[in-house]
Amino acid sequence: MHARFKLLDVEVAKKDLDVRTLLPMGYDFARIVYLSSLRDFSTGDYHHDGLARSFSESAARAALVAAHQEAFYHMTLSPIECFVAQVERFIRSSPKDYASSLHAWETLEGYRVTVPSDCDELTCALFRSNIKIAIALLKSRHSIPLQKPQPASPLLSLDR
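Above: the chain's sequence. Below: its structure in token form.
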């Protein structure tokens, strides 16, 4: 009976986290980055003061783990167009200029810390591959200057 109450606490804590924090973010990549920021990189433990105060530390931790995995798997298994759009939306949300933010994501590989701790190897590899594809596509879109269309052949002058 005690375990049932614990499971119910986790479900209610996750619902609270979803409604108050995650759903207003609007998209999975922002949720993934946010949730991974609540994880101690030395221990892998998640912590959220408000959630732990409202529920218990263990219920809060389990809710954070579940929410992180859910957002991560949902995004990773989404079509590549949606994946790229989410990465672009996140990069554009930075106060830094777009090119600098894109360069930082590419060189620093901050996306590596967004993977849930117990993610299977294949899904992790798919996520990282999709991020690299997204960054390459976004870089190529950004680096193509808009030019006036050129005619296929030069126009001949009638007076020649």
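The two ends are 97 Å apart (CA to CA).
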